[in-house]
């Protein structure tokens, strides 16, 4: 979902391998990779130690404009070991919050809220942690009236299905139009899944053990519909993971997706695929 998913502000700050200790101030590029000189920076990050061992990151533009805040119970340069705790926010140029998320032990405990530049609520959403198997969204007009209520559920084979209701600014129900549309494989999600299974190979080293298992793969789709990154988000076995990634990469190479949209605007988002390794 970005800016649903970009709106979620999971700050993906990568590390310099040589860095040993957190510094008070560091500079990062547009992808949140640390850079040594302010001249090459997209953001300036200030690190503060807070009560209870929390690490607060305050993000500024090189010119000094405040851009957002992130808090961690545990923060290190290794992305996988960070535990979000407390407020995550992103701000507009006017200083108002564009996004607010509250975390407890790395889990969102309050609906993620995105505001209009005026400060009024634009939409709020919540999702579970099982690889986004469902997402609930309530969208609003700037006058405060509800624009739509919807729920997207990812079925057993990983294909999204959205249901809900849409309203005009006077509260009258109109034809349903999803506020958020998930990315879809241009030739059809079912065809993608079928192609993946044609390519998929059962790991040789597991044949004698006759193991079965599931793998969930996420594919980052840019706003033009191109797949740009792949990763395994859930797996029953390392060997299954490797084969699943190979199959999804091969099946989507040089292919396009219909990009995700928020309120009709294309965004960068995540496509989820699930496959099952059968020992037969």
List keywords for this structure.
280 residues, mainly beta, 14-stranded antiparallel sheet, 3-stranded antiparallel sheet, 3 helices, 45% strand
Approximate helicity band? 10-25%
What is the mean pLDDT? 83
Q: Would you identify the regions where 5 or more consecutive residues have pLDDT less than 50?
A: 1-23
End-to-end gap: 36 Å
Q: Approximately how much beta-strand content do the residues carry?
A: 35-45%
Largest sheet: 14 strands, antiparallel
Order of helices and strands: HEEEEEEEEEEEEEEEEHEEHEEEE
Class derived from helix and strand content: mainly beta
Number of strands: 22
Task: Give a structural overview.
The protein is mainly beta and 280 residues long. Helix content is 11%, strand content 45%. The protein has helices spanning 4-7, 189-199, 238-252, and strands spanning 25-28, 34-35, 43-49, 55-60, 66-74, 83-84, 86-91, 97-104, 107-115, 121-127, 134-140, 146-154, 160-167, 173-174, 180-181, 184-185, 213-221, 227-235, 257-258, 260-262, 265-267, 269-277. The strands form four sheets. Strands 1, 2, 3, 4, 5, 6, 7, 8, 9, 10, 11, 12, 13 and 14 form a 14-stranded antiparallel β-sheet that branches. A three-stranded antiparallel β-sheet has the order 15-20-21, with no helix packed on it. The chain is globular, with a radius of gyration of 21 Å.
